[in-house]
Structure formats: structure tokens, C-alpha cells
Write a structure and sequence with these properties.
The complex is a heterodimer of chains A (350) and B (155).
Chain A lengths: L3 E8 L11 H16 L8 E5 L2 H4 L5 H4 L11 E4 L3 H13 L5 E9 L5 H4 L16 H14 L5 H14 L14 H5 L3 E4 L1 E2 L8 E10 H7 L4 E10 L13 H10 L8 E3 L5 H11 L6 E2 L14 H14 L5 E8 L5 E8 L1
Parallel strand pairs in A: 2-3, 2-4, 9-10, 9-11
Antiparallel strand pairs in A: 1-7, 1-8, 4-7, 5-6, 8-12, 11-12
Chain B lengths: L26 H12 L3 E5 L5 E2 L17 E4 L2 E10 L12 E8 L6 E5 L12 E6 L10 E6 L4
Antiparallel strand pairs in B: 1-2, 1-3, 4-5, 4-7, 5-6, 7-8
Classes of the chains: A alpha/beta (350), B mainly beta (155).
Chain lengths: 350, 155
């Protein structure tokens, strides 16, 4: 295995609705910043991979126009995944492992505000047996929360505490969207949105973009004073049929965590892609994190949930925190699909 | 060159229908499931380990092995294993009044089917409650052939 490190990360401030700029205009300053901070000349970056979904733009091959933000002349080696940017990063990491390139740029973007995201995401369910019923994301997450509540794995108060803690932590993150001090008792007095979920258990609707540059060992050491090493990265998935899974568990996260080597050292903090409050509690267990491990110091997806970037943002936020000296070894996690169907786990070290 | 519209000639127009102008085959397993729904039967398929999957699948999600060609009738009664109360239905939801999305483990099945339960109010919902399928007036071979699940005692 080649050593690979994150050498720079950049993201937009996350907002409820990006009214003025299109996707390319959103991306350009992010990509300019991440390339400049990487210390690698734009022309020298060996590979570019993006993560986005046509379903948000409502236009096929919408990702092609985003290449404008990278600067595609002279010609570049480029790829795209119809997934969160964390999986674009994974493809870039594989490309470096194959020895084809020594550096890569991965980026992602999405404007959830353009449609009914909760309904759009229902289209990723089984097109014959499930999607015609339009189970929106909130309803599916509510089914999952109920299983955990019924089994006594967590309480509605535990869920509210996750939401309050994340939005309190987000006060220190200038790029987070939903932040502030919330009283748990007051949150629990609110009505249900889709029972057993209340509004605070759900993520905000966010527009935004993120980008990351990775480099192989010697190059990373040469261009960066504080490279953040990817010590393990792995992704696994569970059945797409919700009714054939125990929704209170996440076996794919557990397996990806083992393969990525989470337990091979102490964990200082974790950035978890848990858009719904109860999902953080499920992921903590699946990753075997001790109760005192700090989770989502950035605020996490409950403070900003840019669809297609929220997973890459977990890896990016974790790398920035390590580079800033606020931790030595961290877990970053990304998810895709309803109710934590597919999961990517990444172990980072300073 | 003269502008045809300026001299009163009709502009060329053409109808455009946005569609996927092809048919997809459901394959051997789901075809059988949906043909069954049309005939008001709910069928699952057995895996090599003897588990009954509903909805049926061509492959066992636990092992990746092909499922067997043994289909079994399940339901129409079953147990609610989880539910989410939708107080404000969306336009695209199957029901236009408050309902529950639910996972229903049909009698004879080892997995649960995602569908809707129509009880009228949240207080009559509970995990473990028994429900049964209520068929649509016209069944044509789609998941909405089951209009909803309703409490068993009420039927």
C-alpha cells in the first residue's frame, strides 16, 4: 500500500438556498482555494474525480458542466461518481494506490434547495416495490428510529441531546448553517414532524460544495507541513430492502470500520455522516466508539447537510482538525442511501 | 431571406412528450410477485437457507446466492415491526389523510414489506399490532394493488 495524505480541504459556507450562484460558480472559489493550499500546481494534479447527482439538478449529465470549475484545458484525467464526494475521494485514493498518479483532486456539490429533496431521495429506493409509495427520507429515518427506540437502544431524549450538542458545537464553525443553544426539554416539548422524529432530529436543507486534494507519500511530505494520512479507507453496503435489515444496527459500518482499522489505535474524535440524530447513536455502536469520544465537533450534518458533499465534508473537517493540532487520530464516516444503507469509514492520522 | 411568420405562413410545431419510450422486464421473480398481486395473492421466495423473502428477490441479500424457485403464499395478515406516523401527507404519498409508513412482516415471511397502514389516527398504531392487506378496487400488477394495510380486528 502507498501512503496517501490529505494535503488540503476547502468548502463553501453552507446555506439554506444558494440563490445567486450556479454550481460552477459555487465550485470555482472552493477549487481555487483547495488547489492553492495544496502546494501542487493545478497542471500537476494527476487525477480529478467528482461526486454529485443529476437528480438534484433535474438534468442528465449535469456533472459535466461542473468540470468547467476545474479548468479542463489542457486536457485532464477525470471521472465522476453518482455518489457523495467521499466516494469520489475513494476512487482517487484507488487511482493513487494503482500507481497511475501521485496526486488527485476530489470534489462534490449539490443544491438541495431546488427541489423537494426528501422526495427526490425516495427515487433511490427499489423502483418496483418501494419507490411508487414515495417513502420520503424523513419517513424512512423515522422507521429506523422507531426500531431503536422499541429495542431500548436509545431514547427520544438521547436523540434530542445529540441534536442540541451538534448545533452547539456548530457555533464554532463559521461555515455551518444551523447553530445555537437549544434546551433539550424545550425540544422534547415540540410536536412530532413524522413520529417518532421531531424537527430537531432532522437535518437542515443545505446547498454547498467541498473539495479535497490528496497526494502520495513523498509528494505529500514535500508540499505540506501537516499532511493528514489516510491510514485506512473502506466502504460496504447493506440490503436495499429496509424490511430485510435490522435497522437499529449498521453491519456495513461495522465491517468497513474493521477493514479501515478503527480499533487499531485510540480515537481522539469522530466526524460521522449522521443526518438524523438517532443515526449518530447507531454509528457510535457500529464503530465501537467509547462514550467519551467527541463526535462531530464541526456540528456535523445536523448543522449543515449539503447533499452529495456532507460525507466528503466529514473527512475534510476531520483532516482540518488534525492539521490544526486538535487531535492525532480520528474516524471519518460517510453514508449513502436510506437509513445508512451504504457506509464508508476512513481513519486519519496526523 | 424572408421570415415566414411575417408573411402569414404557419410556424412549424411538433409535440414533445418527455418519456422513456421502452418497456422494462421485471425478471422472473418480481414478475411473479406482481402477477400475484394482480390476482390478490402475496408471494415470497425461499432462500437456500429456507428464509422467505417478501418482497421476493433474485438473490439472498445475506449471502449473494441465488434464491430458490420455491414461491410461497404469505399473509394477507401480518405484524407491524416498525412504523412512522405521517401527520401531513405529501401529494405523492399513497393516502391523502394521515397514515403510517410501516414495515409489515406478513404471516409466513421472514422479512418485512414496506407499505402504508391506514388507521385514521396515531393512537391506534403500535409496534406488534396485527394488520391485513386491503386490496385496491382494481388490481393491475403493481405495489399499489395493496391499497393499504388495516387493523385486522376492524376487517
Amino acid at each position: 500500500m502507498r501512503d496517501v495524505a490529505i494535503v488540503s480541504y476547502s468548502q463553501t459556507p453552507y446555506v439554506r438556498s444558494e440563490r445567486v450562484r450556479n454550481e460552477v460558480e459555487m465550485l470555482m472559489p472552493v477549487i481555487d482555494a483547495v488547489v492553492e493550499q495544496s502546494g501542487i500546481a493545478r497542471r500537476e494534479i494527476g487525477f480529478t474525480c467528482s461526486g454529485s447527482t443529476d437528480y438534484l439538478a433535474g438534468q442528465s449529465f449535469s456533472f459535466v458542466m461542473a468540470v468547467d470549475a476545474v479548468g479542463a484545458w489542457p486536457p485532464i484525467k477525470e471521472s465522476h461518481v453518482e455518489m457523495d464526494g467521499a466516494w469520489a475521494l475513494y476512487e482517487a485514493w484507488v487511482k493513487i494506490q494503482c500507481g497511475e498518479v501521485d496526486s488527485a483532486l476530489a470534489f462534490s456539490f449539490g443544491r438541495s434547495s431546488m427541489g423537494e429533496t426528501a422526495e427526490t431521495l425516495a427515487l433511490q429506493t427499489d423502483p418496483y416495490t418501494v419507490a411508487p409509495l414515495c417513502p420520503d427520507t424523513i419517513s424512512m429515518a423515522a422507521l429506523q428510529a422507531r426500531v431503536g427506540l422499541d429495542k431500548g437502544l436509545f431514547s427520544e431524549r438521547d436523540m434530542a441531546e445529540v441534536a442540541a450538542r451538534c448545533r452547539r458545537a456548530a457555533k464554532d464553525n463559521p461555515e455551518a448553517q444551523l447553530k445555537g443553544d437549544f434546551d433539550v426539554d424545550k425540544l422534547l416539548a415540540e410536536p412530532y414532524l413524522v413520529s417518532p422524529l421531531r424537527k430537531h432530529d432532522c437535518p437542515p436543507i443545505s446547498d454547498g460544495a467541498a473539495a479535497i486534494v490528496i497526494a502520495a507519500g513523498d509528494l505529500a511530505k514535500q508540499v505540506s507541513k501537516k499532511p493528514v494520512w489516510i491510514r485506512g479507507i473502506d466502504h460496504r453496503l447493506d440490503s436495499h430492502q429496509l424490511g430485510s435489515r435490522d435497522l437499529s444496527l449498521s453491519p456495513s459500518t461495522e465491517l468497513a470500520g474493521k477493514k479501515a482499522g478503527v480499533a487499531q489505535g485510540p480515537i481522539d474524535f469522530a466526524e460521522l455522516h449522521a443526518p438524523f440524530s438517532h443515526q449518530e447513536l447507531i454509528l457510535r455502536r457500529a464503530l465501537g466508539l467509547a462514550d467519551d469520544v467527541l463526535v462531530n465537533p464541526s456540528g456535523g450534518p445536523l448543522a449543515a447537510n449539503p447533499i452529495m458533499s456532507a460525507g466528503l465534508a466529514r473527512i475534510g473537517e476531520a483532516s482540518r482538525r488534525i492539521a490544526a493540532g486538535k487531535g492525532q487520530r480520528a474516524v471519518a464516516h460517510a453514508t449513502s442511501g436510506p437509513c445508512l444503507q451504504q457506509n464508508l469509514v476512513c481513519v486519519l492520522e496526523g | 431571406m424572408s421570415d415566414p411568420s411575417a408573411v402569414g405562413e404557419p410556424q412549424l410545431t411538433a409535440a414533445h412528450t418527455l418519456e422513456y419510450a421502452y418497456k422494462r422486464s421485471l425478471g422472473p421473480v418480481l414478475s411473479r410477485f406482481f402477477t400475484g398481486l394482480r390476482d390478490k395473492r402475496i408471494q415470497g421466495v425461499k432462500t437456500g437457507a429456507g428464509q422467505v423473502l417478501v418482497p421476493p428477490a433474485e438473490y439472498d441479500p445475506a449471502t449473494g446466492e441465488a434464491t430458490t424457485d420455491e414461491f410461497v403464499d404469505v399473509g394477507p395478515g401480518g405484524v407491524v415491526t416498525s412504523w412512522a406516523w405521517v401527520a401531513n401527507p405529501r401529494a405523492k404519498h399513497p393516502l391523502d389523510h394521515p397514515f403510517a409508513f410501516a414495515l409489515v412482516q406478513l404471516d409466513g415471511a421472514d422479512t418485512s414489506l414496506l407499505h402504508v397502514v391506514d388507521t385514521g389516527d396515531e393512537s391506534s398504531m403500535s409496534t406488534g399490532m396485527r394488520v391485513k392487506a386491503k386490496w385496491a378496487d382494481e388490481t393491475i400488477g403493481q405495489i399499489q394493488d395493496i391499497a393499504s394495510f388495516v387493523p385486522e380486528e376492524a376487517s
